[in-house]
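Summary for the lay section of the report: proteins are chains of building blocks that fold into shapes. Here we show the chain for TAXI family TRAP transporter solute-binding subunit and then a coded description of the shape we predicted for it.
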Amino acid sequence: MPESAKTSVFRSVCAAACLGLAAVAATAGTATAKNYNVCGGSPGGLWSLLGAGLDQAVGAAEPGSTVTYQTSSGGYANIVQVTQGKCELGIIHVGEGISAQKGREPFKEPVEGFKVLMVLYDWAPMQWVVSKEFADEHGLTSLADLKEKKPPLRLVLNRRGILPSQLAEADLENVGISLDDIDEWGGKVEFQGSKNASEIMQNRRADMWVNATFVGSSSIRNIADAYPVTLLSVPEDVVEKMVEDYGAKPFTVKAGDYPWLDRDVTTHAARAALVVDENMSDEEAYTLTKAVLDNVGKIQAVHNSMKDFTPELMQSLEALPYHPGAQKAYDEAGN
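The coded shape description reads as follows.
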């Protein structure tokens, strides 16, 4: 065979072999690709953005793998969804996980079939927003003042049955106030979603609103644009109790965090975590955790409120147990 012909045949064989190897590699990549559902909250909120960030992190680490965000009624539902195998991943508040393990409402008995992969954030403080006129009139700077002054307070809490309203009631109970007490003082308590509650406050149909939300949230800014407001502090002994009972984190809203806030305000912050069924394999939990450890920037980029997301934050939880596969990823990373 002429040398040129031999060369041509050799090149053809090599090309075919290379194509074959590429096909095998592609098939192998497809075989290892995994599609995950993550149960979050309402569409368009931060949790949906976190779902998108998880998708980008997992896709970057495991090409072909995806994380699809699934709307849900919140963390309590997500615990059930994960333990029933309806979602591989679930975003919850840590306080919801503790309530599940203790069998507190809305659960009728303890639920323990879930494990933590990572903390997502721990900076959503309970913010007791009150009309400055009302606070000045009744001498209010702390929740403890409510018990002493007994003002005719029109209070708006978040929807019943979700963690922020439960935290609010627990705060009040820990300073010795029941919702019935507020009625007896000539006040009123109503439960509303965040958007409605903010509008009620803006229209001066309530004196105070509380929610677990990031500092600088648009809901609070909109109220403050309507008229002067301030924040009430949560007594330190109450903060300690909330840390113990709900896995909260002590938090200080600092003077100047809002242009109208001229003093530091103590409170506690809700924390969010990513959980999985305890029966997820160690290998899979390891792979998911390492994907985020290796792509922290993907989570930081979803919203400016996530700029403080770090590997150290991911493994900072003590109130709930981590999945062994996740712990292996942290141990290997040396964090």
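Put simply, here is one thing we learned. The first strand starts at residue 35 and ends at 39.
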